[in-house]
From TrEMBL:
Keywords of this entry: Hydrolase
GO molecular function list: hydrolase activity
Gene3D superfamilies assigned to the protein according to its UniProt record, in alphabetical order: alpha/beta hydrolase (3.40.50.1820)
Superkingdom: Bacteria
SUPFAM superfamilies, A to Z: alpha/beta-Hydrolases
Annotated organism of origin: Microbulbifer taiwanensis
Name of the protein: RBBP9/YdeN family alpha/beta hydrolase
Length: 187
């Protein structure tokens, strides 16, 4: 990295926001230079409101930034990159939620996501280095579709194997590999 200053990690949670035992929350507790996009009080399903919250969080950070997004947070980053411009060191995009495909029961439907501005998924290359960490059995993102998103975004695809949605429901609180991937982005 050209800038010798250590980057700040900005955590970009998915639609369920902050979950105490989630790897993003646990990661944030271990890092010294970290911010998290705060949860929304209103318009919780609005993609535009989520993108604005991401931009506001970035505005509060001076210096280099690495984005660490999970699930719908990945889509927030993709939408943000279409609207805003700021130097980003890199982005770890973990378990992207394929908002164009039906989700299992208990999650927002495609029609709800479409009316709230999530569709279509932006497919232009991201203007910063990125790593997509994907699961081969994610109920919210078919591996082949996620692999295509990674190609479209110009991201490095990392197959994490059968890790579900890489969340507490899939057995993941700690995810040590996240630090390894963040370190790769910072180099």
């Amino acid at each position: 990295m050209a800038n010798s200053e250590n980057p700040t990690v900005l955590i970009v949670p998915g639609l369920r926001d902050h979950v105490a035992e989630h790897w993003q929350t646990l990661l944030a507790e271990r890092l010294s230079k970290v911010h998290t996009v705060p949860p929304l009080e209103v318009d919780r399903l609005s993609c535009a409101a989520r993108v604005e919250a991401l931009q506001c969080a970035l505005d509060a950070i001076d210096g280099p930034v690495i984005l660490v997004a999970h699930s719908a947070g990945v889509m927030m980053v993709a939408h943000w990159a279409q609207r805003y411009s700021r130097p980003i060191v890199g982005a770890l995009l973990a378990a992207p939620a394929d908002v164009e495909s039906p989700f299992p029961e208990g999650y927002p439907g495609t029609a709800v996501l479409e009316e709230n501005g999530w569709l279509p998924i932006p497919r232009r290359p991201l203007p910063f280095p990125s790593i997509v960490a994907a699961s081969s059995n994610d109920p919210l993102g078919d591996f082949e579709r996620v692999a295509q998103m990674a190609r479209d975004w110009g991201s490095v695809l990392v197959n994490e194997g059968q890790v579900g949605h890489l969340n507490p429901a899939s057995g993941y609180g700690e995810w040590p590999r996240a630090m390894e991937l963040i370190t790769q982005l910072a180099e």
